[in-house]
């Protein structure tokens, strides 16, 4: 028999193999820890948290720890330009509110989350768990995670 | 002769093919148009430009149109918290200044640019052209471009 090493039959091109591998990656494999603040926290607190945690997106939760909104660096920059007292302005006034918040789940495909980021022109999505009470925030997936995924696909694992 | 359709010899696994394809992509294939401001423009002007152009990173140039610095959304948010008059504060006071600015060239590999974004924890890099006079800004490459690259690698071309 002729040696088969190095030969394989797939009916697919290299590009298709690439696509197949990529398409199977889930959000769970690349998600980061979510950074949350409470609805009644001030915009000033939100900005402080954003710098302290060095993230671009904060998730806003209510007293029951359920997702009610999202604030981005852009939202905070816009608010800081207004001549308001940031320490007495609650973050829920300036946040993007449910149901207008784009979300994803940990078992979603990474590519679907990436497409949402591009379409909605946002930097990050909350990874949520649907419970009878509402949405619990279990992670965050951002353009930084997508950039890491790209680098790791090339074989340079950095995690 | 036996049909060769669907067979190919590479001596490589699917993952290696993936890595090879990825490694050959250059910055030029994914770069966006750069948004620049002048050194003496105010921080207020910079924030306005950032919202108008909807970008996360602005490149700062001198009178000869050469790169002298970079300002991020984070830099502008930090500045806006200080109690200064943003309209009279020149952007070159708060920018990250050359030679501390991470840069790339259009023929660089996209993966090297992606690694720089991760290592330096920044959202975008200027794509520059080295001239005898200094660095001309010819493009911008960001985590958004990396996210698009990831989606397009899966075969969902959106450009």
From TrEMBL, chains A, B:
GO molecular function: DNA-binding transcription factor activity
Keyword Zinc-finger: no
The entry's keywords: CBS domain, Repeat, Transcription, Transcription regulation
Entry annotated with the keyword Magnesium: no
Residues annotated as domain CBS: 30-86, 95-158
Protein name: CBS domain-containing protein
Stretch of the intact protein here: 51 to 209 of 209
